[in-house]
Amino acid sequence: MEDCIFCKIVKGEIPCFKVYEDERVLAFEDINPISKGHTLLIPKAHAANLQEISDDDLAAVHLASKKVIRAIQEVLHPTGVAALQLNGKGANQVVMHYHLHLVPRLPGGPPLPVSAWELQPGDMETIKRTAEKISGAMVK
After folding, report:
1. Terminal alpha carbon distance of the chain
2. Which residues are catalytic?
3. What's the predicted TM-score (pTM) here?
4. By three-state DSSP, how is residue 129 classified?
5. In terms of Cα–Cα distance, which of 108, 38, 27 is closest to 61?
6. Does domain 5-137 bear CATH number 3.40.50.300?
7. What is the C-alpha separation between 46 and 57, in angstroms, rounded?
8. How far, CA to CA in Å, does 111 sit from each of 20, 72, 83?
9. Are β-strands 25-29 and 18-21 bridged in parallel, bridged antiparallel, or unpaired?
């Protein structure tokens, strides 16, 4: 895709701080990091989001994330690593190319609001009806 910044990074038109690469996946440091070691993993083939990515590329990204997270743990010794993936502008996806964030959680680091919500019981009937609707719409 011509205007996609991540596609330009894959083609070498824009530089990156590469962490990992194979035939399907590229991993590089986020230039707007939430924490030290914040890494992005992308498929080399353009897909805007989870709905569009091929099964093979999705598997490749997540298998590569295991390798990258092991290296992050060895180097940074985080207390945890958040794996975040956002789909669409309403979920705050900024670059419309599927990407997985690996965000090391380091002592004294900033809060990660998406991982710290207050648990509140939902309405069981509403939950049940919603589950039934989603289940009914599943592609078999």
Report:
1. 30
2. 99
3. 0.88
4. helix
5. 27
6. no
7. 10
8. 27, 19, 15
9. antiparallel
Q: Are 10 and 22 in contact (CB under 8 A)?
A: no
Two tokens, residue 120: 């509140």
In terms of Cα–Cα distance, which of 50, 48, 55, 39 is closest to 5? 48
- Burial readout 5-14 (b: 16 or more C-beta within 10 A, e: otherwise): ebbbbbeeee
CB 62 within 8 A of CB 46: no
Domain ranges of the chain: 5-137
Side-chain half-sphere of 112: how many Cα atoms within 13 Å? Answer: 20
pLDDT tens for residues 51-87?
A: 999 999 999 999 999 999 999 999 999 999 999 999 9
